[in-house]
Amino acid sequence: MDLNHLAAFVAVARAGSFTAAAAALGQPKSTVSRSVAALEADLGQRLVLRTTRSVGLSTAGAALLERVAGPISALRAAADELPGADGEPAGLLRLTTTSDFAEAFLSGLVARYLARYPAVRVELRLTERVVDLNAEGVDLAVRFLMGPLAPTGDAGLVARRVGESRVGLFAAPAWVARRGAPRQLSELRAEDLVLHRAVAERRPLFGAAGDLPRDAPPRVMVDEMSFVRGALAQGVGVGVLPTFLAAPEVEAGRLVPVLPKLSSPAGAVVLLMPGGRQPLPKVRAFVDLFVGSFRGW
Hints:
Layout: H1 3-15, H2 18-25, H3 29-43, E1 48-50, E2 55-57, H4 59-80, E3 91-97, H5 99-116, E4 120-126, H6 133-136, E5 140-146, E6 157-171, H7 173-179, E7 193-196, H8 197-201, E8 220-222, H9 225-233, E9 238-242, H10 243-251, E10 256-258, E11 264-274, H11 281-294
Parallel strand pairs: 3-4, 3-5, 7-8, 7-9
Antiparallel strand pairs: 1-2, 5-11, 6-9, 6-10, 6-11
Helix pairs in contact: 1-2, 1-3, 1-4, 2-3
């Protein structure tokens, strides 16, 4: 039995489509389809049920997936984790973070990492979802945590606090011209606010300096900081942003600080890794590069 055919079958079963499986494997859709067909021919069983709208598994296909998915993943992981010559970083590094953080900081860092270690490949999962590193085979998570660093809630993980990022209030120059620059927090109204959900739920954000209005919901509440930044630049209202995310917009003149003397050490930048083993060279090298770059941020 061809292991490549088995890997193609597992990818299709997990993705629920040949197109998505082909993208995940980096292969043409026709190649994946032929691999699954060849596996079905070898076993003499229909494994995948194809319709015009979806792909499902037959009883035999579901039974096969249950038995081979784990071993296939383990084999793939073992191949990815092989070190290069003389212990040089090599193989596939799987990272996860949010799209906001990746855009602001991680893309340039990944480029330098790849240039320095040509035997490494990188797979990025950009999501607000808290990825289960152990279950999903991810090597490293970069997370921006609001508030003090608390237990991660992820069993078997090692957390490393890299640094602290501050947040402040920002708005578009047009909003300030129209609304007027507030002189203190108490002048803001809930209807002025565009907030990330984690910010909206934190009390108090600015400590002794005061709090954002809580008498009504903010005008906009969302789960991505990049949306907050974009809405503020369009003049929708005033909102809280990490300074690293706001800085390019301020430099470009699309945002200005509001109550600039107010800032809060509201976020910890944390690296999370699966515990229970020494980090592989590819992980150690990325962590070292990340920490060294963040210090000057």
